[in-house]
Amino acid sequence: MSVAFRRESDDEHKEPEYELPIAVGPNLVTPRGLRLLGEEVARLEGEIAETADEEARKKLQRRLRYFHTRQSTADVQAPPTDGSVGIGSRVTYRLNKAEKAITIVGGDEADPARGHIAFSAPLARALMGAEAGENVEYQDREDAIAILAVEPDPETQA
User: Fold this and answer.
1) Which of 94, 64, 91, 87 has its CA nearest to residue 150?
2) Where are any strands of DSSP class E within the chain?
3) Which of 35, 42, 121, 123 ranks highest by number of CB atoms within 10 Å?
4) Among the listed residues 31, 157, 134, 156, the one whose alpha carbon sits nearest the alpha carbon of residue 83
5) Cα separation, 158 vs 144, whole angstroms
6) Which strands, in side-by-side order, build the sheet including 98-105?
7) Which 3 state secondary structure label does DSSP give 86?
8) Overall pTM > 0.85
9) Residues 6+ away with beta carbon under 8 Å from 128
10) By C-alpha distance, which of 37, 42, 145 is closest to 101?
11) Residue 2: exposed, middle, or buried by beta-carbon count in 10 A (0-12, 13-18, 19+)?
12) What is the pLDDT of residues 99-136, one digit of tens each?
């Protein structure tokens, strides 16, 4: 019989399990972000200890490897003290006649619904280094964003 028609097991036809992708570049985090990484590692370790199903354990262990890597490579950043925008800054700005406020955080702690955006996001990159009263370029429009206020976000320091 031809090898093409032989099937030894279902396992040989499964998609391979790859590690969770890690973002390229530095792993900049706020103090809060480092704490959240540690909490997730502890939660996953506890869940693995309680899980009997081997497939479920493998998936949890995969996530645990990701968070261990993120925790060990974390570079904690304090918000700038000179009034400029950086990681851990709460920025109030005007874009398209609408006033908004965001906090710039590390990639793993980003939550756009809560107003926390990653430092690597295009909006955050446009704001980084600017100060209150400045206008910055965004999406090929000069003076697209007016920065109204910049302050350290106390929530990111906890």
Assistant:
1) 91
2) 28-29, 75-76, 89-95, 98-105, 116-118, 135-138, 141-152
3) 123
4) 134
5) 33
6) 116-118, 98-105, 89-95, 141-152, 135-138
7) coil
8) no
9) 85, 86, 104, 119
10) 145
11) exposed
12) 999 999 999 999 999 999 999 999 999 999 999 999 99
- Give dist(CA 35, CA 39) in Å, integer: 6
Count of residues making up the chain: 158
Q: Tokens standing for 64?
A: 């645990």
CATH of the domain spanning 89-157: 3.10.50.30
Tokens of 135: 């206008």
Q: Where are the domains of the chain?
A: 18-76, 89-157
Residue with tokens 């980003």: 110
